[in-house]
Amino acid sequence: MSTYYAKPGEVQREWLLVDATDKVLGRLATQIAAILKGKTKPQYTPHTDVGDFVIVINADKVRLTGNKADQKTYYSHSGYPGGLKEVPYERMLERHPERIIEKAVKGMLPKNTLGRMMGKKLKVYAGPEHPHTAQNPRTIELEA
114, 128 in Cβ contact below 8 A? Predict the structure, then answer.
């Protein structure tokens, strides 16, 4: 017996639709990251991108547990001295709610070229509308 390895040309990708309304951010992000990696498929191969496309709607309705909504801060650095920027969770939720889910999922993907390819298959939208109806996404319910 030899181990099966999926080849990039024979991967069948599917479009999945996830509603983030009243879902806990961390639990939602781990399940989305597993789908993007392809770990939910039987032909999972670590060195090949076998994951599906994921569309997340209602990103502005995601929730945090405990005091994280008051204490969570997003950091970025320009690379220059004194270039650290801090954005509290409340302001990020007002201005760019889709970035909250994008950053959470990106942190759970591999930090290499393969991880960047997986991250491009994630589409996040703040409201219930999305422009991917032509792909006929299958709606899935993730565990809360």
Answer: no
